[in-house]
Amino acid sequence: MKATNFNQTLPYAFLTLSTLFWGGNLIVGKLLVLNISPILLTQIRWILTAAFLFLIYHKKIIQNWGNIKSSFVILCLLSLCGQVFFPLNLYIALQYTNPINAAIYLSASPCLVIIINKLVFKDFVTVKSLFGIIISTFGVVYLIIKGDFFNLRQFFNLNIGDFWAMGSALSWSLYCSFLRLKNKNISGNVFVTVSAIIASVFLIPILFFYQFDLSFIQSSFSLYAFIGILYLIIFPSWLAYLFWNKGIEAIGAIRGEVFTHFIPLFSVLYAVH
């Protein structure tokens, strides 16, 4: 009985840990983009994550190669949405806006997931689920603005960072919705490793396209930058995606996506400390 209860609560623990790590990603990302271009940061993040995970899981990748090859198009789609456009848009947004604003836009993703699943997969959405997501979204925004709705006036003065943050939320919503298409025979760690490799390859032409724009390539590294990148590799890039995928696979995208609301809350806690 206890084992059953543990197995039932494990997906929720996975999803909570993922949002904890991604909440830190917003704060660390904001600090890193002060000295490292968003495109270069995203490329560094995924190429080092890919190298690190490949060293650990290369044998399992070989064993799973048949499944990887047969679902390569889906893997590319998921990698583009989840590993390329989601963090890239987010890091660009953080150049112009603060982590809290970016997180508020991200909290809209559960609603977007419902819309995508309804339009693409014809999912039936219960009134209870819809009402729960609306209430939780309202609750998150209320807590972040500290109950002062006059703080919402800042969202009527949108800058370019707000639009990049919206793009990040849309990319993440697409990733969560299409995650159901992932080949179930590909293990979690292999999936994250292959996704990181694909993301690294996709980012190469983007990086080269902007290499002549010095504003994108001027970067400086320090011990703090090294520690920040190390955090991005281990927690937001590896463990967060691994745990999130396991959680979504267990309880579904609509129920699981509600946990995205924890990201702005954790970001606020990180920012306070």
UniProtKB/TrEMBL annotation:
Membrane topology of the entry: Multi-pass membrane protein
Main location: membrane
Protein's UniProt keywords contain Cell membrane: yes
Domain EamA: 12-143, 160-272
InterPro entries: AA-Vitamin_Transporters, EamA_dom, EmrE-like
Signal peptide: none
Subcellular location: Cell membrane
Cellular component GO terms held in the UniProt record: plasma membrane
SUPFAM superfamilies cross-referenced by the UniProt entry: Multidrug resistance efflux transporter EmrE
Origin: domain of life: Bacteria
Keyword terms of this UniProt record: Cell membrane, Membrane, Transmembrane, Transmembrane helix
Keyword Manganese: no
Membrane-traversing stretches: 12-33, 39-58, 70-94, 100-120, 127-145, 157-178, 190-210, 222-244
PANTHER family, A to Z: INNER MEMBRANE TRANSPORTER, S-ADENOSYLMETHIONINE_S-ADENOSYLHOMOCYSTEINE TRANSPORTER
Name of the featured protein: DMT family transporter
Provenance organism: Spirobacillus cienkowskii
